[in-house]
Amino acid sequence: MTDESHNVHGLAGHCEPAQWPPLRFEEVSDLLSSFVGIGLTQRITWHSPRPLSAACLVQCANTTLFVKRHHHSVRTVATLEEEHRFIDHLRAAKLPIPAVLRNSAGRSAVGMGDWVYEVHERATGIDIYRDTMSWAPPASTQHACAAGAMLGQLHLAASDYHAPQRHTHILVARSELIYAADPIAALEAQLPQRPALADYLHQRDWQTDLAEVLAPWHAAAQPRLTRQKTLWTHGDWHVSNLCWTDTDENAAVTAIVDFGLSAATFALFDLATAIERNAISW
């Protein structure tokens, strides 16, 4: 799957060859032919350096769109549409989120061969952190405050959204283990449905490792965590998933993107994830 002509952000703070091949013009043109009103596909203007999928901006005759592609082993049409229904709810509550487009068959997730695609409006505003390494800290305290305020608005808008938990454990932020009275037993119960994780954990004494990390605080925290209201959350809240009015340190948020890790968790879990993403160096 490696394509050395396109580099992406690595987890160690440097760029590396993409694991997924970059989107090709012919591929994108074929996909967009089933979307009405956008005009002919003209060219790909930018490839995303984010590492966990392939994405690009596409100039069409009538608009510019954001196209994202997943391997079917990571996202099925059904699990991708779970994200899109959450986005639709938040947009109805006036959150600044680019619309997910539907094709002529009314589908927001489109399967083609081994791949599953989604098409979004281009986000409004300036993508200040476009070329910044993933999970780098905000450029200013004001950016952090603006991001935090917008996260609070998202949680309020999500408070009346009710949907089952995501039907995947792959690349989502879920909170079942931290909820569990016995997280080790809870994870052991999941492993038959998560064979890749089971193979990885089989190589180490993960039960001891997890017990040593969790034991000092989990027994005291877990009863209080279970009283938190279940809430669908963003799951990956960092400043590079936001667009901004301008490049000034006092810029305001104009758009929220990338709901790929969204799931039914709780607001405090999402806030903790946001602190980790923005303030703890990988």
Helix content: 25-40%
Catalogue the unreliable spans. none
The whole-angstrom Rg is 20 Å
| Major β-sheet annotation | 5 strands, antiparallel
SS strand fraction: 15-25%
Order of helices and strands: EEHEEEHEEHHHHHEEEEH
Number of helices: 8
* Outline: globular
Oligomer: single chain
Number of strands: 11
Pairing-aware structural class of the strands and helices? alpha+beta
End-to-end distance: 25 Å
- Give the averaged pLDDT, no decimals: 92
Strand numbers in spatial order across the main sheet: 3-4-5-7-6
Topology overview:
Blueprint: E1 3-9, E2 15-18, H1 25-32, E3 41-47, E4 54-60, E5 64-71, H2 77-92, E6 109-112, E7 115-121, H3 141-158, H4 176-179, H5 183-190, H6 195-201, H7 206-225, E8 231-233, E9 242-244, E10 253-256, E11 263-265, H8 267-279
Antiparallel strand pairs: 1-2, 3-4, 4-5, 5-7, 6-7, 8-11, 9-10
Helix pairs in contact: 3-8
Description:
The chain is 33% helix and 20% strand. The strands form 4 sheets. A 5-stranded antiparallel β-sheet has the order 3-4-5-7-6. Strands 1-2 form a two-stranded antiparallel ribbon. Strands 8-11 form a two-stranded antiparallel sheet. The protein contains 8 helices and 11 strands. It starts with a strand and ends with a helix. By secondary structure, the protein is α+β, with helices and mostly antiparallel strands.
